[in-house]
Amino acid sequence: MGSLFHLDSHIIFFAFFLDLLIGDPPKIPHPISGMGLLIQKLENPIRGLPFFSERVKGLFFFLVIVIVIFTIALCLTQVLFILREKSLLGEVILIFVTSQFLALRGLIDAGKVVENYLERGLIEEAREALKALVGRDREHLSKREIQRAILESYSENLNDALIAPLFWALLLGLPGLILYKTINTLDSMVGYKNERYLHFGFFSAKVDDLFNYIPARLTALSMILATALVLGIKTALRSLYWTIKYGPLHSSPNAGYPEAALAGALGVRLLGPAYYGGKLHLKPYLGEDFLSNLHNTIPMSRKLLYVASFLGLALLLLINTYKA
């Protein structure tokens, strides 16, 4: 039985394509939902602890969630490896479980739902569906702002949904993959810079930044290479230039790089001011607005997303081969 902290490249390969093929089967409980439920259940009891600052409570909360889920991940991996030794079915189950922590299909499907509503002129429905992709206030977004939000989500979440999970899976096996998704889910639920979570979610947000530092830059590189293949070297050079120029302007140390790479590929301007919880956040613009019609860029962004995901997978598997 191999190390619990190693996943063979073929497991990653087939898990990637299984996610693209079936995504998240609706009748099977999803592990990320379980993580979210645990986070919800433990937040208020830990917040209620006496004599501690919000930041200390947040650190304790982070450690409890991570230790509990990582322990479960180790036990699950042990069971799956035993099943794998006994039959081919065990290998198939391992591939399926791994695929459930990847979310490229879910990301693309969520974007298509919003896009379809826009094509039918159903702006209110598009705003409501957009909540699956972004956390900003959606009530007053225009059609153009919704289209821009789709592009931003595609670029940033290519990292969170695929490249970063693959990176940690190849580095630390299935436990590493589950650890990353735990930290990423914590950040998505408590990592906000608002009054409620600024201190309580501090450690969750900072550790998520750390875990995404290398993957986010690999995501940007994959997008630039995809641009070269799909749109040509000249456009890829613009994507590279915008990544270097605009990527560091984002308030996140990571999100700006893949977003700027896609902006450069499409020749559009992303990000900018947005409302969160009723408050205006003056985020910088990424890129220059060459195109007035964002609608035509969404199908191209989806194509780039697919190509970048294949290239990212190939790059990580190549690294894994030399590492082994």
From TrEMBL:
TM stretches of this protein: 59-81, 88-108, 161-180, 218-237, 304-322
Listed pathway(s): Cofactor biosynthesis; adenosylcobalamin biosynthesis
GO biological process: cobalamin biosynthetic process
Matches recorded under HAMAP family: CobD_CbiB
The entry's keywords: Cell membrane, Cobalamin biosynthesis, Membrane, Transmembrane, Transmembrane helix
Entries under InterPro entries matching the protein: Cobalamin_biosynth_CobD/CbiB (IPR004485)
PANTHER family: COBALAMIN BIOSYNTHESIS PROTEIN CBIB
Family per record: Belongs to the CobD/CbiB family.
Function, in words: Converts cobyric acid to cobinamide by the addition of aminopropanol on the F carboxylic group.
GO CC field: plasma membrane
Protein name: Cobalamin biosynthesis protein CobD
